[in-house]
Amino acid sequence: MxxxxxxxxxxxxxxxxxxxxxxxxxxxxVVATEGDWTVxxxxxxxxxxxxxxxxxxxxxxxxxxEKEVTRGDIRLYxxxxxxxxxxxxxxxxxPFAPDSTVEVDVGGQKFNxxxxxxxxxxxxxxxxxxxxxxxxxxxxxxxxxxxxxGTVTKDTFSLSGITAATNTAKERCQ
Length: 174
Description:
Layout: H1 2-16, E1 30-34, E2 37-43, E3 46-52, E4 56-60, E5 75-80, E6 87-91, E7 101-106, E8 109-116, E9 119-121, H2 125-137, E10 140-146, E11 152-158, H3 162-172
């Protein structure tokens, strides 16, 4: 539970710092852009992360009918801190349904992320490493979640540049 809370606090800190906003793309803590991914770095605490918005989004009701909805920022993150091998997380732009999971599909490899509020994470550092390896080897990832209102969302992210972006983030935060 402590790890889950630490992950939640980290995500909230990132969002509060404005990293989940479009304006963050112009922030002075951008250190690199690799393909569809942007690398950010911070000094206090020392953290580096690669982040990308989705290329496409589909929102549907419980019967699969597409519908228009308002969502906040949608981002896929891979974060690094000194002594850490990387942590993957997702921000869906809406509160997830209580006790729900988010499915991550990278070329047929599937992972389930735990949710809290608008954020989702793997269950362990081992799962982080498996997911990050799959992301680095893939070309796109589809992330499916369910909102507290029952809307099913599918966000498709390009993985173009993720290997270089995660390499840069990891090297900067060793």
